[in-house]
Amino acid sequence: MIIDMVAPVIILVYTISIMLVFIRAVKGPTIGDQVLAIDTMTYAVVTLMIIVAIYLKEAILVVTAIPLALWIYALDIYIAKYLEKKSEIGG
Amino acid sequence: MALVEIILEYVGLALLCLGAIASLIGAIGMHRLRNFYLRLHAATVITIWGGVYPIVGASILAIVMPELGVYRWFMAGAGFVTAFIILILAPAGSHALARAVHRSRTALVEPCIYDAIDSGMCVKKEVSTQ
Predict the structure, then answer these.
(1) ipTM for the assembly
(2) Per-domain residue ranges for chain B?
(3) From 1.10.287, 1.10.10, 2.60.40, 1.10.490, which CATH number describes the B1-104 domain?
């Protein structure tokens, strides 16, 4: 099928974009930028994992993508609660 | 191979290529845009255009893939569920994060015209009169 020729290019493009977002996660000026970049990076990793599952024809790899997408939402909520509580206490 | 399977294969491939291009555009936008509130747009481009649509395309592609055997239905179903979860959770998470950052005054609104919620956050650019 055509996917065997196209999939390595798509995997390469996703890897480059994850590395670019990782640079923003390391050097982001505020904590909001860093959390947003980690959030975005994890959703890209979920997509990359499903494309790798298509490329290797391993159906079991898709199962690992769902908990990853659920847990990164928990990170967003924790950081948002932390920032709001800190602003209330700090004045 | 039936005609329906050929059509589904090309639809899945088109969605995958669209997602790859959108992901690259969003990753460049994370560096080019200037403050936190503008980078939310780049994050949305990566999570929705580069996340939900390629997963739907990969699921459609898994249906017409004969090498997977029975497991192709399992893979397509899990892929659709993952795409739906991301479609629900990614906007909710980034909205909560943006609200918390704006309320805790962590990031200023740097090129700003008018901020109705908190006018102290608004850093106006120096405009020379006439």
Answers:
(1) 0.89
(2) 1-104
(3) 1.10.287
